[in-house]
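Notes to self after the call with IL:
- keep both proteins in one doc
- input above output, always
- annotate only the second one for now

Protein 1:
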Amino acid sequence: MLNIKCPWCGERAETEFTYKGDATIRRPDPETASDEDWLDHIYLRDNPSGDHDEMWQHSSGCRQFVKVRRNLKTHDILRTGAPNDSFAEDDT
């Protein structure tokens, strides 16, 4: 089991959190995006390996969203923070 450090509540078990998705995906602009842009956004995703940023929600705790940098090969959690925190590529 993973332990995720919530910035507001401290370290908690993964079972208290709900995975919400890839934190690097940006929605197309609703005003200018074509149907093809939306299809690509919804259905075409990369399958990353190594360090990756994800969004989790502390659903059984404070209900806040948490950005998590996790190594997808080892499942090690390298860093956590608020959703707007910027994780530099060499940050661990």
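Protein 2 (the one to annotate):
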Amino acid sequence: MVVKQHNNYALDCQKVSHWFGATKVLYDLNLKVRAGQFVSLIGPSGCGKSTFLRSILGTHPPNQGKILTMQNGSLITADRPGRDRGIVFQKYSLYPFLTALDNVALGLKLDQTSSLFRIFNWSGWAKKRKVFRDRAAVFLEKVGLGNAINMYPDQMSGGMQQRVAIAQALIMEPEIILLDEPFGALDEATREELQEMLLQLYQENQEALSKNKKPPYTLIIVTHELNEAIRVGDRLIGLSQYWDWKKSGFDVSPGATVVYDREAPIFKPNERPNYESFDIIRKDIRKYVYNPDILQSRNDHLVNDLV
């Protein structure tokens, strides 16, 4: 099926550089992400992937350059956190005294009501609370936890808790969702289940695009697992400190930058990929993103038209 590409951008990073004192982390990073794309961000340890996510989130704005995110229909500088961006970390942080339902509803509660409202307007709060919890139930169903809404975190497996954390991000309906190694602490079977959950969200995007509607989910996932990156993302972005910065006139490394940008194969939920078929892509990524002995120009492997 041919899907019409939506032209709106959810993210526009322009000449982003970041450093901590004398430590150079990111250099002249340029990246545009269309609404509805699922970007897999890969790269060697220490190349600044998490720093980049926090720059997008707004907690660590770049030292140079701009990061624009879609806010109220316009691309606006993301120099502080906002509800247009959500993040899920490897270490899920659920409140142990709240059920799955109330953990997911909490974001709406804090965003749309005040403590004074909840204390002095009992009837109004009761109505709002029901709306929030009903909405939370919808998103728990979406992540496959419709039967676990009344469970507490200590009653749930690690995979279930991570599903709750993802539902917490989804319910706020951000323009872009950031996932920082979200499945890194989980066993292989659970990882595959959660990958399929993300592919279900991607399928919802495709259905929206086929109707010329805005796709509901835009996602950047950081992962060290190349098979996961290829399976979940429709675009592979390689961030690396291994590029030929000396030929660009530097005496010392100015930091990591985008050295690889390619489309990835698309999979449907529950479609079991032949991981051996990923071998050519994996070799390409290892050669140009992870290999310190091959220092190519940072523009040699950027074939995506969004760069």
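Annotation: The chain is about 35% helix and 20% strand. The first strand starts at residue 9 and ends at 20.
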